Amino acid sequence: MPYQPVEAVFVVFYGLAAHKATYGRLSGGYSKDYLQLTQDEALRQALLRLFPSPTTADDSIPITYVWPNGEQSGFIKLKSADRPHLAWPFSEAPLPWKMSPAPSASGPETLLGDPSLTDQADATREYDKWVASGDDAYLVAVKLREEPDRLHVRTYVRGSANRLDYADVSHLPDDVRDLVESTTRTRAFAWATFDDGAMVPPGLAAAVEKLDENPSLLLVGPPGTGKTVLLEALVDFVTNPRQTIYFDPDANHGAWDVRSGGEPGKARSVVLHPSYQYDNLVVGLLPEPSESGGVGVRVSPGPLVSLAHYASENGRRALLVLDEFNRANAAAVLGDTLALLDKDKRGQAFIDLPYADMTIEVPNEFEANGTTTVPHSFTLPKDLWIVAAMNTSDRSVAPLDAALRRRFTIVEVPPDYGLLSERLGADEDLDLSADVAGWTVGHVGSLAVHLLRELNRRIDAVLGPDFRLGHSNFWHVGGPTVDDALLSLASAFDHRVVQSLRLSLQDDDGSLAAIFRAGSADQPTSRANSVATWVQPDPELNAFASDRLHFRDISTLNADQSLNELLAQARLK
């Protein structure tokens, strides 16, 4: 069978949970016929897009697991403890994911071990032997673009102890290998989709899909949720096309082929501000010296006109990024080009650019169809993506009118707790009530995620969703030891969370007290070492003063006191 373009790849690290699921049913803990994925709305939406619609009440999607000379029925289960599953019939995991006493390059099994044991303790010892060898294994499922309900399954290995060189991760394309090796025992699942055969991370893939539907996209959300990171990823996606990846269903581990990507596109990023105008974005006049020694003027095309001219040549893609979109009068900045933004107007509707009696020349790098001269009858090509971003919590800037809003696909970018969990190596199922002496750095990461989620629940109730905190506030929490990681978390809480909210809510002690669990002035919290406490005024000032909320840095407390307050803020005690 010829190579086919890859549409998605799913990876599960071969940890104890994966071993128990794929080994087969045994009494005790070997009771699952599925690999549990992750609780991620982006993943759920991707599964619904990639595979046929669910056919049962529990949102199960029938699929077939495929490998060279074999296949196995299975299903994707969407409704299961809020986490999707890759599942199969009772005790019938796909063979490439199972153990064999004599694995070989011809497969299908890859993992070295005895698959015939009937006692769970013995089966677990087989896993322990694998771990003791020092090798890591990865269960991989590949979705091809032209196959709506099939997953091609393989197992890859990192390490040489078991002499499984034919299954080494070095056989994977670089992008896929990076994805595979991003999984660990504590972050056991990773996935990515592909655009025209090029790997695209999940958040970027969702944005590209929206841009394919409508080339005008507006990202909205609180600060620190990753809007700028996504904009940078889109710029990189357009200007540095990735290699396209293909897969041969009939080959075993050497099933991959990598081909060069397409032509690099052009991108420009603009940060709007109150002084930014139509002349800056679209077209304006600039002074220039004249031959007679005086000063003349020339037409200066802005980034919108330059990129539109470049993308007017077939097969070219361009991207215009408009960050801080609501910090200028966006409707005035876009002017008459606003009428060209709609998808059905791209390449169909035209306006007359200003200064029609003068020649408009774009820089040479934007040349298209053999010319740098821009026609005065101007349109926006369909391959020019326009992506804007704005912070919803900033109310001191210009609002967007309805005519502008309706031309953009508006996508909310909320705090991403799953991404933060992956970043911090957190497992939200860890028991945070356990004695801190038994904690790992992963416990601290889990506490950070719980804390952010709980703070945002209270902020949502008190102020509304636009004021939630982004996951970037805890992005750099960590350290070589648990004590270092806890100090890092306390410091981030003091200097990023508390200070940010205090600046946003000046003279609103009541809201701050509700968010930080300080009680009310009449019934203040009795919690020792609370980050926020009510202080009564001096009696001599009663006629003029009122109770005020005072703050302390919990990072200056001892480790136990600081941890207790962090747990209290996360409502874990």
TrEMBL record:
Enzyme class: hydrolase
Gene3D superfamilies (alphabetical): P-loop containing nucleotide triphosphate hydrolases
Keyword terms, alphabetized: Hydrolase
Listed EC numbers: 3.1.21.-
Domain AAA+ ATPase span(s) in chain numbering: 213-418
Signal sequence interval, chain numbering: none
InterPro entries referenced in this protein's UniProt entry, alphabetically: AAA+_ATPase (IPR003593), ATPase_dyneun-rel_AAA (IPR011704), Methyl-DNA_Rec/Restrict_Enz (IPR052934), P-loop_NTPase (IPR027417)
GO molecular function: ATP binding; ATP hydrolysis activity
Protein name: 5-methylcytosine-specific restriction protein B
Organism: Curtobacterium pusillum
